[in-house]
Amino acid sequence: MADDFERLWTPHRLVYLQSGQQPPDDECPFCLAPGKSDEDALIVFRGKSCFVLLNLFPYNTGHLLVCPYRHVDTYDKATEEETAEIALLTQQAMKTLRKVSGTHGFNIGMNQGELAGAGIAGHLHQHIVPRWLHDSNFFPIIAKTKALPRLLGEVRETIANNWITDK
């Protein structure tokens, strides 16, 4: 059936989707991160019940994750304290990213469960992906390459040193 849409087929993504890349609970990277140095774990801010770190495989420069310290898999299992701090840290992350990188917009969301596309399904985490006008291109699809202009360590240091905690 014709529908006037062009389609880009990316069959190489199927390997990632079907490979079952979920770590066992005792190897959860979000549980292990707080026990490491901020630099090694890419943590930019530590709160009471949650922390913020850079995504190791970012969609864009400054792609952050807000995670509770507690190993819990879905939002409905998070405590009121955890959900409140996830919201607060998300707001602070947005303000910080606007300050340090001139972000024009954001994609914010949670993929809960392996079926929903969660890269780490066993540990709740919220994505904060900064966006800029005209930041989309075909490079990742055609060349299987993502052009990120700054190294993760440099991005972590900039965000951590400029974290905005005021409301």
TrEMBL record:
<feature type="binding site">
    <location>
        <position position="127"/>
    </location>
    <ligand>
        <name>substrate</name>
    </ligand>
</feature>
<feature type="active site" description="Tele-AMP-histidine intermediate">
    <location>
        <position position="125"/>
    </location>
</feature>
<dbReference type="GO" id="GO:0000166">
    <property type="term" value="F:nucleotide binding"/>
</dbReference>
<dbReference type="InterPro" id="IPR036265">
    <property type="entry name" value="HIT-like_sf"/>
</dbReference>
<feature type="binding site">
    <location>
        <position position="55"/>
    </location>
    <ligand>
        <name>substrate</name>
    </ligand>
</feature>
<keyword id="KW-0547">Nucleotide-binding</keyword>
<feature type="short sequence motif" description="Histidine triad motif">
    <location>
        <begin position="123"/>
        <end position="127"/>
    </location>
</feature>
<dbReference type="InterPro" id="IPR052908">
    <property type="entry name" value="AP-4-A_phosphorylase"/>
</dbReference>
<dbReference type="Pfam" id="PF01230">
    <property type="entry name" value="HIT"/>
</dbReference>
<dbReference type="InterPro" id="IPR011146">
    <property type="entry name" value="HIT-like"/>
</dbReference>
<dbReference type="GO" id="GO:0003824">
    <property type="term" value="F:catalytic activity"/>
</dbReference>
<dbReference type="InterPro" id="IPR039383">
    <property type="entry name" value="FHIT"/>
</dbReference>
<protein>
    <submittedName>
        <fullName>HIT domain-containing protein</fullName>
    </submittedName>
</protein>
<feature type="domain" description="HIT">
    <location>
        <begin position="29"/>
        <end position="138"/>
    </location>
</feature>
